[in-house]
Structures are given as structure tokens and as C-alpha cells.
Amino acid sequence: MNLYPLLRPFLFSLDPETAHEVTLKLLKLAQTSGIGKLIYPTIADKPVNIMGLNFKNPVGLAAGMDKNGDYISALDALGFGFLEIGTVTPRPQPGNPKPRLFRLPEHQAIINRMGFNNLGIDHLLAQAKQSAYSGILGINIGKNFDTPIENATDDYLIGLRKAYASASYITINISSPNTKNLRQLQQGDEVKVLIATLKDEQLKLQREQGFYVPLAIKIAPDLNDDEIAHIAKLLLEFEIDGVIATNTTISRDLIAGHPLANEAGGLSGAPVKDKATHVVRGLATELNGNVAIIAAGGILSAEDAQEKLNAGANLLQVYSGLIYRGPQLIEDIVKSL
Description:
CATH class: Alpha Beta
CATH architecture: Alpha-Beta Barrel
CATH superfamily: Aldolase class I
Largest sheet: 8 strands, parallel, barrel
Strand content: 15-25%
Order of helices and strands: HHHEEEHEEEHEHEHEHEEHEHEHH
Oligomer: single chain
Number of domains: 1
Number of helices: 12
Radius of gyration: 18 Å
Strand order of the largest sheet: 3-4-7-8-9-10-12-13
Structural class: alpha/beta
């Protein structure tokens, strides 16, 4: 029973950030009360093995929906093949001033400048531990806004060390446009130093703890072809397990003239689709199947999902599509595979 078309007008009448919080609370209520079992579709397993992990289906939730790990079981009930929580930072931080989240329904798009608002990694890990979730859990880590960019690696090392025992895989977010200077970590020697350092730490943690947790790097859709090739070369050189393509875009080309087009922040949803697919295709050519590609950006239908897979993606993640389409999107994609 697809109730989302009935709920959406109410949710869209609310401030976007309020609607986000209300939606998560409604999902938790549905899951804890048992109503979810009556209204959510039963999604057949379409198992895939990627990065040495067994996913029940290839459709995952992108980071950003559940920044603190407070709604893991409620989101799992929707039928995702995996969940990614965060972005989480070593210390709690409030994020950017409100308003910081905007809907553009005419474009099936969202602009956000949340700024990694979260309760800190210790809270997230406590929530993950309390959850009964037994599926694939990605933990997305970032740096605190007040950590100087030259010390960013220190924050990622804290996140990696703390998350290692609780995560199925760990995502290094170096591509949010909403933390000052963060995206420069994708460029030149900086990305090489960061990747090398984190790979060394991953292997050290494997030796100490006796198990291997894959690492993925999340990159921007605004990279040019040379930058895509450079990052792909480093992913291969340092044997990074996965790459998430992509985060939000800073481009406004496809929403030019919209009243919200000048709002600062990352643009997601339909306008980022082609940019994200271009990055996926470029990575697929460079990586030749040796690094897992997780596609995100502009997936609002089964056809969009297939386009990403045809471009070379191994797994998919949705977020903005979920806001515009609701849980039916997950079923539609999995059924089409």
C-alpha cells in the first residue's frame, strides 16, 4: 500500500528541515508499532557481492538522511539493500545557520547547506550498537568545520578508528560543498596524502582487530575528466575498495532562473543526474572493474537506476528521489533489476 502520495502534500507544506524530522519520526512510529509491515511492500532479495560484502539488494540509502544513526531500524524496514549513516564528525557540531534546506519541486531537486550537523561519532556508534539491524551498514565520516584543512586527515583518522569495529564499510566524505575548503582535498597531492594515510590506517586496524572493513571515497560531480582520472589512478594505486559517485553539485546550470538558484549549498535530485552518470562512466573506464562504484545522484526512477548501472555502477544510493517518490522508488528499482 503506497501511502506516500497522500502524505507528500502535508510534508511539502512544512519547512523542509521540519518535514525531514517529521518523516523520520513517522517511519520510526510505523516500524515500532508494526504498521510498517502492513503498508510497506515486501521486496524480494536480489543479492550481490561487492567489496567482499553480501548485499541483499543493490539499492542503498545515501548518507545525509540519518546523520546520527537514530533511525536505522525504521529505514531498514523500507527494504533497502544497505544503509549509509552520517556524515558524522569527531565532535558534535550544529551545522550552518537555518534555513539551510530548500525544495525545488519544479526540478525534483533539493539544495542543502546543512554543514555536517550531527551529534558526533560517539553518539552515532552508540545508536548503531543499540539497533537490531544486521544488514550492511556504511558509516560516512567527515571533518569538523573548525578543524583547519591542513589538519583534516587527523579528523578522518579519528573517525576511521572509532567507526572501524561497527561499520560494514566506511566512507570518506571529501566532497561536501558545505564545509569550507573541504573539496580541495580531492585535488592534486592532497588527495594522495589523505588516501595513502587512511589506507595505512585501515591495514593497521585490520591487523589489530583481525577483520577487514572496506573503505570508500565519496567524490563530487563537478570534477573534470582529468581530475576523475587522477582520483581513479589513486584508488587503484592504494587499493581503495569503493568510490561513491557522486555528492551534490555546486552548478546551477539546470535551475537557472529559479528563485532559489542563488541559494548557497549543494544541489541534488534530477539536475545532478547527468553529471553524476558522467563521473560514473569515467570511473568505470579508468577502474576497469577493480574498484566498486556506488552511484548516487538523480536516481528518481527505475530507468535512472538502470542508466547508472549501464554506465558501470555496481551499487546504487538514493536520497532526493526518496523525498520526491517515497519508498515505492526502492521497490520499483529492485523489481526492474
